[in-house]
Write a structure and sequence with these properties.
This protein is α/β, with parallel strands linked by helices. The chain contains six helices and five strands.
């Protein structure tokens, strides 16, 4: 992967990164918002320390470890990626409560249109802010968006030291099993 200078990363601030979506996905993964590396590359979860791609593979969602640049192949596996907030920032704490609320509204409309089987929000704090649910925890939620079930996953950022790749893969794997169940 290309190494970006600090100036190149800063130039990516506020840039939008296109969703990787299709109608009727098994799981639509939803990040908090694009980081500067993601915005600079145009590839979701592109920061080298982010564990999304390894955990996606370890949990059995993909048959091999994919690179962020291969994100366009996800719909073939019934998977997609979007974000709660579209604006790229260096850190999620740069986002406002209003951005999270508006992001939750826009995400709801997107999910109603695309109708994935599951919406998987990666990051319980982002889920709580976007959907005004202070008591939410990791795992399946009571909330539905239309017919779409909702699951909250741990944030795969390398900064999330509470979860290892192995424990994250277990939780992602629980979602994978639920997404395969047709009942």
């Amino acid at each position: 992967m290309k190494r970006f200078t600090a100036a190149e990363l800063e130039a990516a601030r506020d840039r939008l990164v296109p969703d990787v979506v299709a109608d009727g996905l098994r799981v639509l993964f939803c990040g908090i918002n694009p980081g500067l590396m993601t915005a600079a590359t145009g590839h979701h979860f592109a920061r080298p320390g982010n564990r999304f791609w390894p955990v996606l593979h370890l949990s059995g969602f993909t048959p091999r470890l994919m690179k962020p640049s291969e994100q366009g192949q996800l719909p073939a596996y019934g998977l997609g990626i979007t974000n709660v907030v579209a604006r790229a920032t260096a850190r999620a704490d740069e986002l406002t409560a209003e951005e999270y609320a508006e992001g939750g509204r826009l995400l709801t409309a997107k999910v109603e249109r695309l109708r994935p089987r599951w919406l998987a929000v990666v990051g319980v704090t982002a889920y709580r802010a976007a959907f005004h649910d202070r008591k939410a925890s990791i795992g399946p939620q009571e909330r539905r968006v239309g017919d779409t079930r909702v699951w909250v996953l741990p944030n795969p950022s390398g900064l999330n030291a509470h979860w290892t790749a192995a424990t994250m893969a277990q939780e992602f794997g629980r979602l994978r099993e639920a997404a395969l169940d047709r009942s």
